[in-house]
Amino acid sequence: MLLKTRSQLHISTVSLIRFYDWCMVRPLSVEEQKANVQSAVSCNDTKREVTVLNSLFKQADKTFTFDKVFGPKSQQRAIYDHAVAPIVDDVLEGYNCTVFAFGQTGTGKTYTMEGEMMQQVGELPASAGVMPRAVRHIFDILKAQKAVYSMKVTFLELYNEEITDLLASEDQSRFPEDRHKRPTISLMEDGKGGSVIRGLEEIVVYSPGEIYSLLQHGSTRRRTADTALNMQSSRSHSVFSIYIHVKVTTTGNQELMKYGRLNLVDLAGSESIARSGAKEVRAREAGELNKSLLTLGRVITALVEDSVHVPYRANISLKEKDFIISNLLHAKNVILERAKVLCGTVETASGDIAHLQNKLGRQSKTEVENKGLLFNFRSQIDQSLGLLHNTVVGSIREQHQFMESMTGQMNSYFSAKSESANHLKRRIAKAKDMYTSGVQCMNELVNTLRQRSITDSEQMKLNISSQAIAVDNFIAVMVSETEQVLTEVLRSTSELKELLAFSAEQQELGLQKSLTSAQAMSKTSIDFFNDISTHASRLMKLMEQSQRGCSSRLAEFEKGFEEVAIREEQAAVDKIAGILAGLTARKRTMVSEYVGQLNDKYSEEQEHLALEMSSLQQVSDNGKKEAASCAEKLKNQFLDDMSSHANTKDKMGDVLQQCLKGSHHSVSYWSHMQSCLEHLNKSSVVEANDFIQEGRNENESIIQEIQLRSSHNDAGFHAITSDILTASENSHLLDHETRKRMETLSTSFSNHLGLLTEKHNQGTESIRTFTSNFMEKDYSVNSPVRHRPQELLAGAYSFESIEELKASVPDLVAKFKSKNKLDEVDKGKSYSDQTTRAPRSPLTPVNH
Ligand SMILES: Nc1ncnc2c1ncn2[C@@H]1O[C@H](COP(=O)(O)OP(=O)(O)OP(=O)(O)O)[C@@H](O)[C@H]1O
């Protein structure tokens, strides 16, 4: 497995690139040892040589030299310390560095780069790879330097020419099958000859632990597969990048930013498809991997050999992103050759490697030289900057001294020179006095204005606050009254509710009672009708019995009668006539006896029936009585319920009436409140508008007055300056040198005056701005739809204050004029020598 690094430093348009080749040979695994696999490679770490033992195949051994060789016994820590640690130092110096791990599948690339994944705290395990060690190293250095820095990381995977962000947030798709699809991102031209990876998530990190978690997370998302040569073979290239921005302070106390970037690239392994046992998808995948690695190798070789043509595109050779990503798309034969060399299958690669090493050595040397040159260049720049600084400071000091000496000379010149100088001095003093008094007067005016504005704003604040308090009180009263009304309404509503509940209860009770009564009544009626039915059935039975008795007796009578008739007939036949009378008498007796018996029996049954009928009558009467009493009870109950309902209804009516009154009262109260507020707002708006208008007028006149004074002052200074110029021009007695100095002094004085004028101009402008702000912003009244005006800004003028100011302005102007005898200036009595010049606009520079 080869570990290759590339460093790149960007200094304006210059890019320095250097390459190192390290060769790592992993130990035989336990399985390989068990299978008695023979080692085909021997390493000489000291000589930095790896020998492919072709003698095993009865051919000459081949020896290859690298920048560094790590044999099978090498520890992860040693590999990091020798190969990667210096590169991390370069990164923190502002270089862009890349560490590639490439080689045949199963040779230990991922193990070297990642190793056993990192612990959050404490020592790293012995098997920790380059990535966790580099992270820990970077943080250790930054901590030791107490550096101010920022850091972010990216982690991408390149699989079958498709880039995937390994740190992208998990997909929250609605459909579970979509969640496994990782978002792909694209490589784009950045328009500056470089390229950008669009959509790659850059994660800002603050601790090694955070990076370890990200690495662990990203690493588990990488595509791996179980092949015949590696149980967990990476099927994609991965690029983990750390971007570091460090703030540094130079000796000249300048703050600079160093931007360094470390790319840690774990390439997929090249493989012999036949040996790895790859089929179908895996075989195609392996083909793509081989192709990309080959192209990468070609690009690296072209860069190492300084080839005119780099098999990607020329600008890419200087750009790392393109180098890593795009070159993979074109990498073909060279990397395969390298892989084959390592496998001992290509014999002719030995010379190339040696040649490459020599080239690399030369390049490293040039690189070191360039770095030295650069360092010298930088120190020269620092020296030049220091020199420049000293020169500038010295020249300023000289100028200052010159000015001081000039002032002294001028003083002596004026004291020694004639009346014209004295006259000039007096004029200057006068102008100075005038200007000072003007300024003083203006200051007074400004102070008075400010004082007034403060007092008036306070007064206004007081008024506003008292108004606000009144409005607040008014609102509070309204609120409390509204609350009372609402409480009343609520109380009435609750009473109403209670009454309704009570009435419902009463109704329910009444209905319950009615139901019970109706049930009792119905039970009594049912009993009554049951009794009647019983008695009726008994009566029917009795009647049936009686009928049956009568029938049987009549049948017996008929039978007996027939028998007797037959006997009588026989007797009659026998006795013929004699007995006929007695027979008839006896027949009559028998019939009457039997009729008597029948009559008795019938009367007896009649009595019995009458008895039954009377008992039926009795039952019926009882039932009637009970029904009547029940009806009476129900009637009374119903009447009670009706009266209670009537009472409830009356009460509810009263309560509703109260509610209605309360609502009417609230409505009228609210409308009253609304009209009050509207009135209040309207009056505030009108007052404020009037106030603004008057304030605006007053301020306009004040500004005009200030401008007038300023123009007087300017005119005065203009006169003085021209006097000085005239005096200096006319001074034949002055020698050339003195005149020159005079001119310089005059120019500096004029410049000074120009500055003063500018300041004055700024002052006037700021007063104007202040006034316009004051008018347009500070005094603007809020929209009438609001209930309370906003507070005016502190320092704003009240209407009264402006009135007072207005009254005081003429006094102040008169005072100013009398103090400076400006009436004379106005009349053109003094400064007659200035009238020859055209009047200058008040705020234009004096000398031009
Ligand atoms: N220096 C080492 N010491 C002990 N075991 C190692 C070492 N290097 C690699 N291995 C073991 O060898 C096996 C293959 O290593 P690794 O997966 O890192 O190879 P790879 O080059 O990344 O393969 P691929 O290109 O197929 O992904 C792993 O089981 C790993 O643990």
From TrEMBL:
It is found in: Cytoplasm, Cytoskeleton, Spindle. Residues 831-848 have a biased composition (Polar residues). Residues 823-848 are annotated as: Disordered. GO terms for molecular function: ATP binding; microtubule binding; plus-end-directed microtubule motor activity. GO terms for biological process: microtubule-based movement; mitotic spindle assembly; spindle elongation. This is Kinesin-like protein. Belongs to the TRAFAC class myosin-kinesin ATPase superfamily. Kinesin family. KIN-5/BimC subfamily.
